[in-house]
Structures are given as structure tokens and as C-alpha cells.
Amino acid sequence: MRGEQLGRQVSTCDLVDPVRARVQPGEGNLDVRKVALDEVEPVRRINRRDWAPLRFACSRLGGREARRRVAWLRVGRVVGVVGLHCRDGNDQHHRRWPTVATVAQVRLDRITKTFGDGQGLVHAVDDVTLDVADHEFMILLGPSGCGKSTLLRMIAGLEDPTEGDIYIGDRRVNDVAPKERDVAMVFQSYALYPHKTVRANIEFPLKVRGVGRAERAAAADNAADVLGLDGLLDRKPGQLSGGQRQRVALARAIVRSPAVFCMDEPLSNLDAKLRGETRAELVDLHRRLEGTFVYVTHDQVEAMTMGSRIAVMNAGRLQQVGTPHDVYEHPNTSFVAQFIGTPPMNLLPVGMLDADDVVVGIRPEHVVLTPGGAHLATVRLVEQLGHETLVTVETVGGVMAGAKLVARLNAEQVPPDVGQDVLLDLPLAHRHRYDAATGERLG
To answer: Model-level pTM?
Structure first.
């Protein structure tokens, strides 16, 4: 194929100059299909090591005699580096500069997964359509048994969809083997080899692909540096803490330079403090790698703090997809309203404050305890959490009789005592209305 002409002859060793029109050193994306050289002649297809041998016909600057060189170009999705090796007799040159990862959009088109047959037929995933943008951190959120892990396993190729199509980039991958999908999976149980060192565990995906020892070692060192495992490479998994084992599992995934990272509740085995620290590490890792992350969790705190978008699932069906802010502020169903938020949204009994077929909801922070409130209630529980106080009340008399609500007070507000009568308001602007039969949002 012919490269784009820039009005000058260039050398492969001067490659950063011809691509300067579309990338500066340290930023941008180098597309191997648009490298601006005089001529690019492919020798053979990309092999399983992700190295693309290319033969460049080029000349040196200053009108010197043209030479033919052999170069190897590799796009490193993980470390964000393009490495160029040029060999011309005894002359060798190596250039490296950051780049953006290869496009890795994931598209699910009406995916259904069933188990069993007849009366025992179970729809684990039911007609799910979802687009995950390139470089997005997508969270699949829902309770146990909602189908989120099954959906993730179908993306990775560990399960086959009963109906529908799965695309990674522009490629339909329904019939593509897992190892050929360019996807890395991080499991809840770590799945480390106990008899291998940390280094050997990290290098293993590259070893089975036939990557050379020196390159494996360099990749492992880079992944260890990214995840803070430098001093642990010679240890066995049994000598590591839970958080360290989780980082080893992540390093083993990123060392493969995958297009898509699939993570199945990787933090569920960690204690609360370590879980918070690792959440921050994963967000930072996503920012640095600029990879596409699909992350499964049942923890809505993880979803709200980590995801660029959240896909909420229940009973195999997709309930809502949106940013954490949108899902919290405008839940599409009463299920999402109660699943997102700690404590969850207050849902009043059917017909209370509205028609007989409408459920009214309001977030705890919007329940206002005020001397001029319109509704009388008795305090049943006070939970002081330091940064906030949660007050559970039960309404007394009128159309609101017998309703239990949770009000969130800030740290500066003095909480009432248990058993004390209080007045409260439920501002109309903050009420959410849902169909009592379907749970769908109204208006």
C-alpha cells in the first residue's frame, strides 16, 4: 500500500516527523494504516505475538542514497507505547513514544441466554442491547442472579449466546474463540497459579502465545511497575495479601495488551479499606491505559465511584443505562430507585400522595425536617455516622398515616431524639412517580 506523501523523503528513523501532522510525541494516536512513508509493503500478516513485520522502502534525509530497511511495528495497548525497531545491516535504531489504544467498542445486539428447556427453561439474560464505547468504563450492576456475570462471560467467549450478536469493534465474535477475541478476564477468585512466582503468573499469558523471554520479562516489569508490584515478583501467591493477589491478577490481564478488560467482581474478596484503595487504583489504571473496561459488581458504591456509565440489570433484563449522576437523579424504574443509593429512595405505599395506581418516591436527602412541615411523624431510629445522620420516622395521622421514611441530615444539624414527634415536608420538585403495576417511571 502507498503511504501519504508529505513532499519530502523520510527515513524510518525519522518516523516521528512524517506523522507529526496527526500525532505529537507523547500524545495522539498512530494509525499504522496512515503512516506517511514513501512506500509501505507488508511482508506477512500480524502474527500471534502482535508483531507486524513491515518492509519500508524509504530514503535518508538530505538526498542520500535510498536504502531498504526492515522494521517491526507494534502498537502497545497497555503501556501506551509504539515501538519501532529498524535494522539495516549492523545499524540498529529504536524509537518509542506514547500513543492511544486501538479502538475497542463492544456492542451487544439483542443478546439472550437461556438454560434448561421446557418448564425448566431459565432466561439468565433476556434481550439485552448495549453499546460500550471505546475506552469507556462500563459497570454492569445488579443483585445476585440478575445475569450480569453471564453477560460478561459471553463477551469474553466463555459462554455462547442463545440469541443475538456480540461485536468487538466491527467484528462479530459469536463464533470466535476466547483467545482470539483480544479480551482479558479478571476473575473474582484471582485464579493464580500457586506454584508459580508472581513474575511467572504475570508472564504466563505471553508465554502461551510464544512471546520471547526477554520481551515477557520487560512486559512483566512494566505491569508490575504500573500496579506497584516491583518488590514482589519473586514471591509465590501464598506469600501475598488479598490486595496484592488482586493486583497480580490485574497485571496478568494488562500484560496481554487486550482490547477489552472484563472484570467479574474482582474486589469482593477484599476488606472495606483495601476495597476503597483498589477502587482508586482501578480508576487510575483505566485513565492511564485508556482501555475499554466492562466491570461486573453488585456493590452500588463501586458502580457510582468507578464507572463512566452504569448498566443496571434485574432478572436478566436491562433496567437503565446512564452516567452515575443520571441513574441516581432520574431512575427509570422503581427497582433502580431502590437499588441505587445508600440508603435507598423512600417509596411510599400505593396511592399515598397521588393516584391509586401510582407509587411516589423521594430520596432521604430531600425529606426535610422542619417546624413548619405539613406531615406529623414520630422518630423511630437515629443513626449517627459522623459525616451525616440518618433519621427513620413513621408518619402519624392524615393521608400519610403509617408510612416509614428515612431522612438524611448533615453533620451540622442536631438530630431529634428517638420517640420525639417531628414535622416534615416532601417537596414536590423532588418527588418521583412510578406506575404501581410495571414500576416504570411516569413523566
So the answer is: 0.74
